[in-house]
């Protein structure tokens, strides 16, 4: 599969994006992982939360459409 062209926003950006195809649409996301290292509770210390955000407006529209299903 040919590599999609880099977006203007991604050129020179320190952020790594994930691209995947959903049907015939290309969705680009940015992921953040949050950890609670200073927690004194063992359960919280092991907790990790992964947040996925759309990296561009086209991906945001696809995600909004999926949320309505």
Could you tell me the strand content as a percent range?
25-35%
How far apart, in Å, are the first and last alpha carbons? 29 Å
Average of per-residue pLDDT values = 80
Label the overall shape: elongated
* Helix count from the secondary structure assignment: 2
- Record the strand order, biggest sheet: 1-2-3
List how many beta strands DSSP finds. Answer: 3
Number of domains: 1
Helix content: 10-25%
- State the low-pLDDT regions, or none: none
Order of helices and strands: EEHEH
Q: Give Rg in angstroms.
A: 16 Å
Please summarize the sheet with the most strands: 3 strands, antiparallel
Q: From the helix content, strand content and strand pairing, which structural class follows?
A: alpha+beta
Quick structural overview:
With 69 residues, the chain is an alpha+beta fold.
Could you describe the 3D structure shown?
By secondary structure, the protein is an alpha+beta fold. The protein has one domain (18-67). It has helices at residues 42-45, 57-67, and strands spanning 18-22, 25-35, 48-54. It has a three-stranded antiparallel sheet with strand order 1-2-3. A hairpin with a 2-residue loop joins strand 1 (18-22) and strand 2. The mean pLDDT is 80.
Question: What's the topology here?
Answer:
Elements: E1 18-22, E2 25-35, H1 42-45, E3 48-54, H2 57-67
Antiparallel strand pairs: 1-2, 2-3
List keywords for this structure.
69 residues, alpha+beta, 3-stranded antiparallel sheet, 2 helices
């Amino acid at each position: 599969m040919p590599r999609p062209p880099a977006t203007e926003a991604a050129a020179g950006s320190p952020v790594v994006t994930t691209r995947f195809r959903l049907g015939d649409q290309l969705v680009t996301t940015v992921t953040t992982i949050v950890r609670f290292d200073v927690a004194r509770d063992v359960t919280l210390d092991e907790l990790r939360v992964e947040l996925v955000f759309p990296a561009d407006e086209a991906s945001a529209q696809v995600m909004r459409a999926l949320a309505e299903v």
